[in-house]
TrEMBL record:
It holds the Pfam family Cation_ATPase. The chain crosses the membrane at residues 52-74, 80-96, 243-263, 269-295, 689-714, 720-741, 762-785, 791-809, 830-850, 865-885. Belongs to the cation transport ATPase (P-type) (TC 3.A.3) family. Type IIA subfamily. The keyword Nucleus does not apply. One of its GO terms (molecular function) is ATP binding. It comes from Anoxybacillus flavithermus. Its main location: membrane. Keywords: ATP-binding, Calcium, Calcium transport, Cell membrane, Hydrolase, Ion transport, Magnesium, Membrane, Metal-binding, Nucleotide-binding, Phosphoprotein, Translocase, Transmembrane, Transmembrane helix, Transport. PANTHER family: P-TYPE ATPASE, SODIUM/POTASSIUM-TRANSPORTING ATPASE SUBUNIT ALPHA. This is P-type Ca(2+) transporter. The keyword Phosphoprotein applies. Coiled coil: none annotated. Signal peptide: none annotated.
């Protein structure tokens, strides 16, 4: 259908909708059901069955199954069945873990799915873009990604970048008039296409195609699906895994060769060797890491941080600087005008929040509102998008809180929305942007008089003014008056007030204004409004905690330098020698020059989004790992360049969210701290189970190796080895991944990004504890075997129990970087339960007669448990105890 060739009313009719009302919710639901979701169909995922079968495709598992088949042929049915059963249970475990990881990653994707602003039943609301249907009326603004193919019905300075569709990288200016039928896709200027990006202005339109029927849908097969991202740690572990496989195979081969050389049956040794290889090769590590990462991501979600790129979880733990926006992130973004300066008089305004109730006072006394104050308040509300709404008893602002504060101040003087709309119409608008730091409208009153109203950052606006409104008329703005204005701004800003200046210029009836530079010149300065925006309560503490954790907090704001400084002081983030730098100074510095001074700067004020990139680069050159927040379109480069790009969930544009690796659902600085804390903890938890699993594997290999060297019988039979692996690899390792943070996790400096997995003594801990686990198991075996050489199964059962118990005790040691005594074992009830169930299973396979022939066990007398418990406690308590004692003394 050539929608671009039709007039708006024709489109409206064709898709059966109403422009001012939209579809009804019911109709939208019906259409969604009938025509399906507004999604590009994705490639099919492998089926659950395929994924399950995939679990058996590991080389060593195949060898084990082959070996088992041989033992079945040789008549060892029980062994064969038991081994197959264990392999199947193992596969189930792996399968469940994989599915779980996938599910939580999918849930993640859904959470960060794009939304669209749509008119339904006459109300504007946000819905997931996937729920858009043909006939929906949508609107969008700079920074939004278009949710479906749309025939435009409104375009205010609307520019859309369509490179993903047409390859044209320059944004296209859009309009609403019908076009000839035969224009090509790139020239359909009255259409907005799914997946393209609004770079400037705003617009609205009727959805005319969704899902695979959109222009993007037609080329969907050309789009590559996003590759699954591996975190640096996962990549490192994959490499490490390969090395460990070689080591494990070599040692296992050695065990087999030694065993055969010492006179063991080749067949026995082969099966034992393969079982040992299957047990000792940590092939499951990357999968568990993914699960733990995914679980961590879920925990972050509960704390309002959405991870968009998995590697960020790890990088978070390395963050050494957080660069954060001020407004809305460190402050409440709940603005109230408290001061107004006009006609050289400073008024104060009473009232709190958005309730339009309050009085205007001069020197503490209520005074009649004069015309100049009226004028200032009115202009503040005219050059404005925000709307004051009442829900129940509470007043809310729909729109930008800064503008909301101006609307409320005007309403306190009687300038309500209806009254203003009755008397004035907005002819044109030049929207606010954070580089110009101002916004302008062209207004016509009922007598067709036209004028320009501009509001913006006082210092920027003052440069565009030539006159000052004083005693009812415009007078030339001399240096003296400029100084007075600046001084007033400084006074207000040092009280942490955000200041907005307002100016105007009368226009002749026919004067055409095409661009903002022309509009924003030769203006007459009227006055200032100062508004409070209190710091968020939790931020001060979050900054203090970050400091303890070796993380510096830097404020980057578009606001006035004194306002920023005052808020920074309230938040205790500016040390006595800390510096404050403004955008002008920043512009003059190269990245290298900034690098020399950047360590001392804690506040960057009056910056433009371009500056953010420079700051990130300078900090990175100093070796910092930088987390950087942003919300606007222009913030995207800095967010992308930062090691951890953070976007705002509420106020952020789609572009900033797409560039970010982390999205704050509540726009709150404290959430960044929470995410870093989780990030650090996740990394530590991964180290914990790596330590646990590898130490267990070292123990398992060494007990077999030493037994062969000492020409002993096999201390463990294959099924026991497989069982140990299953029980240790399974629940306790997973429970370690869920371990709560050690209380010192935010009291130590950030991890160095180049730090290896085995850093900070982990390698030594794995080898030493693993060695001890192997040794105590061997000793247990030897003690019983020497006394009862005729009953090998007895000695094997004791060795088996000692190995399992030693590992289950050691798991508690793995919870701490320091020693087992430093943590309360009951803090992690998952782990306690996991260990108890593993213990119970151990008792079952030892004492339940039907299982005894399968697991080659015998019932043990109680006295043996003294030996088993005593020996298995050694690996954990011997070294931990001496360490603890040394620290105490
Ligand atoms: P950040 O969120 O980065 O901490 P900010 O929100 O204060 O900073 P900007 O939104 O870029 O930064 O605002 C910079 C300045 O522009 C403000 O100090 C204010 O004077 C002015 N300003 C803000 N919003 C508007 C607006 N809607 N219209 C006109 N001027 C505005």
């Amino acid at each position: 259908m050539s929608w671009h060739g039709l007039r708006v009313e024709q489109v409206e009719q064709q898709v059966n909708t109403t422009i001012g009302f939209g579809l009804t919710e019911k109709e939208a639901k019906k259409r969604l059901k009938q025509f399906g979701k507004n999604e590009l169909s994705e490639e099919k995922k492998p089926s659950a069955f395929k994924q399950f079968i995939g679990q058996f495709q590991d080389f060593m598992v195949l060898v084990l199954l082959a070996a088992t088949a041989i033992s079945a042929v040789l008549g060892e049915y029980i062994d064969a069945i038991a081994i197959v059963a264990i392999v199947i249970i193992n596969a189930c475990l792996g399968f469940i873990q994989e599915r779980r990881a996938e599910k939580s990653l999918e849930a993640l994707k859904k959470l960060s799915a794009p939304e669209s602003l749509v008119l339904r039943d006459g109300q504007w609301m946000k819905v997931p873009s996937a729920d858009l249907v043909v006939g929906d009326i949508v609107k969008f603004a700079s920074g939004d990604r278009i949710g479906a193919d749309v025939r435009l019905i409104e375009a205010k300075g609307l520019y859309i970048e369509e490179s993903s569709l047409t390859g044209e990288s320059l944004p296209i200016e859009k309009q609403t008039a019908p076009l000839p039928q035969d224009v090509s896709l790139g020239d359909r200027t009255n259409m907005a296409f799914m997946g393209t990006l609004v770079t400037k202005g705003s617009g609205a339109g009727i959805v005319v195609a969704t899902g695979m029927n959109t222009a993007m849908g037609q080329i969907a097969h050309l789009l590559q699906s996003a590759p699954t991202m591996m975190t640096p740690l996962q990549r490192k572990l994959e490499q490490l895994g390969k090395i460990l496989i070689v080591i494990a195979l070599a040692l296992t081969a050695l065990v087999v060769v030694l065993g055969v050389w010492q006179g063991h049956e080749l067949y026995d040794m082969f099966l034992a060797g393969v079982s040992l290889a299957v047990a000792a090769i940590p092939e499951g590590l990357p999968a568990i890491v993914t699960v733990v990462l995914a679980l961590g991501v879920q925990r972050m979600m509960k704390r309002n941080a959405i991870v968009r790129k998995l590697p960020a979880v790890e990088t978070l733990g390395c963050a050494s600087v957080i660069c954060s926006d001020k407004t809305g992130t460190m402050t409440e973004n709940q603005m109230t005008v408290t001061h107004v300066w006009v006609n050289n008089r400073l008024w104060t305004v009473s009232g709190t929040g958005y309730e339009p109730k309050g009085t205007f006072l001069l020197n503490g006394k209520q005074e009649k509102i004069d015309t100049s104050l009226q004028q200032l308040l009115l202009f503040g509300a005219l050059c404005n998008h925000a709307e004051l709404k009442k829900k129940g008893k509470t007043y809310m602002i729909d729109g930008d809180p800064t503008e909301g504060a101006l609307v409320v101040a005007a309403a306190k003087a009687g300038w309500t929305k209806d009254k203003i709309a009755n008397e004035f119409t907005i002819e044109h608008e030049f929207p606010f942007d954070s580089t110009r730091k101002m916004m302008t409208v062209i207004v016509k009153d009922r007598s067709n008089r036209r004028f320009i109203v501009t509001k913006g950052a006082p210092d920027m606006l003052l440069e565009r003014c030539r006159f000052l409104y004083m005693n009812g008329q415009a007078k030339p703005l001399h240096d003296q008056e400029r100084k007075t204005v600046q001084q007033t701004v400084n006074t207000l800003a040092s009280q942490a007030l955000r200041t907005i200046a307002i100016a105007y210029r009368p226009l002749s009836f026919a004067e055409a204004i095409n661009d903002e530079t022309k509009a924003e010149s030769d203006l007459t300065f009227i006055g200032l409004q100062g508004m409070i925006d209190p710091p968020r309560k939790e931020v001060k503490q979050a900054i203090a905690e970050c400091k303890k954790a070796g993380i510096k907090t830097v404020m980057i704001t578009g606001d006035h330098i004194l306002t920023a400084k005052a808020i920074a002081q309230q938040l205790h983030m500016l040390p006595p020698n800390g510096k404050v730098m403004d955008g002008k100074t920043l512009s003059q510095l190269t990245v290298d020059e900034l690098e020399d001074v950047v360590e001392d700067v804690y506040v960057f004020a009056r910056v433009s989004p371009e500056h953010k990139l420079k700051i990130v680069q300078a900090l990175q050159k100093r070796g910092h790992i930088v987390a950087m927040t942003g919300d606007g379109v222009n913030d995207a480069p800095a967010i992308k360049t930062a090691n951890i790009g953070i976007a705002m969930g509420i106020t952020g544009t789609d572009v900033s969210k797409e560039a970010a690796s982390l999205v704050l659902l509540d726009d709150n600085f404290a959430t960044i701290k929470a995410a870093i804390e989780e990030g650090r903890n996740i990394y530590e938890n991964i180290r914990k189970f790596i330590r646990y699993l590898l130490a267990s594997n070292v123990g398992e290999i060494l007990v077999m190796l030493f037994a062969m060297i000492l020409a002993l019988p096999l201390p463990l039979v294959p099924i026991q080895i497989l069982w140990v692996n299953l029980v240790t690899d399974g629940l306790p390792a997973m429970a370690l991944g869920l371990d709560p943070a050690e209380e010192n996790v935010m009291k130590r400096p950030p991890r160095h990004p180049k730090e290896g997995v085995f850093a900070r003594g982990l390698g030594w801990k794995i080898v030493s504890r693993g060695f001890l686990i192997g040794m105590v198991t061997l000793i247990a075996f030897l003690v019983v075997h020497t006394r009862h050489p005729e009953n090998l199964t007895y000695a094997q059962t004791v060795a088996f129990a000692t190995l399992v118990l030693a590992q289950l005790i050691h798991v508690f040691d793995c919870r701490s970087e320091r020693s087992v005594f430093d943590r309360n074992p009951f803090e992690n009830m998952y782990l306690v339960l996991a260990v108890l169930s593993s213990l119970l299973l151990l008792l079952v396979v030892i004492y339940y007669p039907p299982l005894q022939p399968i697991f080659h066990t015998v019932s043990l007398p109680v006295t043996d448990w003294l030996l088993i418990i005593g020996l298995s406690a050694i690996p954990t308590f011997l070294l931990a105890g001496s360490l603890f004692a040394r620290r105490r003394s």
